[in-house]
Amino acid sequence: MLEVKGLRFGYVLGQDIIDNVDFTIGEGEFIAVGGRNGCGKTTVTRLLMGLEKPRGGKMFYDGEDITNLSPADRGRFIGYVFQQPDRQMFRPTVAEEVGFGPEQLGYTKAEVADITSKALAATGISHLRDAYPPTLRRGEKQRVAIASALAMKSKILILDEPTSGQDGKETRELLELLETLRATGLTILLVTHDMEIMAAHCTRAIIIGYGTKAFDGTPEELFTARDDLFDLGLTKPPCVALAETVSGLGYCKSMEEFEAKMLARKGRS
């Protein structure tokens, strides 16, 4: 679906912060993009969206070179939820905000209304259709931004640190929504520092470090086979660390899985 080849970028001439990054993203993946602060993980996603211009390398979507494609044109297949989603909202109501993209694509008024209603329903915010976006909670604003991406029929959804500053309930509800959307074939890219989310929900992790792509594989491979997690700004999630202290228990991607395995072991004893 989306392929990146030899991507290079830097803010200062002659100083690349990202050099020779390659990866391919497929349909229905749930990918964490991680690394220490300042490593360039958000920059990589901004490059994918066209919000930054690379110094070198190419990007392809379904085989078509999109390296020089504008963010507006990429918005037809990539949705982006900023860390502060209110920065991307400018219409007076939620429904008008979600319907803006389809309007620009030339859909009729009736078609826009239908697309908007379906996107609001899919994200659980139909009751907010007449609300003024700036007055919403952050979690609700995120859902408006996600609904806007769905209204554009985006195939890839990028979220930048969506769970930072959220309480446990908001985080669980957002992750449940993302899992539901992924089940429909939507690809999710999640920029995150949360190792527990990376282990429990993501099918793949791309870690930016040492000025390039330092790791690309499953969370299990990352947390069990790498000995440079600290250097990459990462830590083992508690569920993984605890499981390693119990002989023969195996990898646990969440505390729920750890508890279930321990109870099952106790039941057999």
Automatic annotation (TrEMBL):
Keyword DNA-binding set for record: no
Protein name, UniProt field: Energy-coupling factor transporter ATP-binding protein EcfA 1
Keywords: ATP-binding, Cell membrane, Hydrolase, Membrane, Nucleotide-binding, Translocase, Transport
Membrane topology: Peripheral membrane protein
Span of the signal peptide: none
Pfam families: ABC_tran (PF00005)
Family in the record: Belongs to the ABC transporter superfamily.
Molecular function GO terms recorded: ATP binding; ATP hydrolysis activity; ATPase-coupled transmembrane transporter activity
Primary enzyme class: hydrolase
InterPro entries, alphabetized: AAA+_ATPase, ABC_transporter-like_ATP-bd, ABC_transpr_CbiO/EcfA_su, ECF_ABC_transporter_ATP-bd, P-loop_NTPase
Localization (cell): Cell membrane
Enzyme Commission number, as recorded: 3.6.3.-
GO cellular component: ATP-binding cassette (ABC) transporter complex
Ranges of residues in domain ABC transporter: 2-235
Source organism: Veillonella criceti
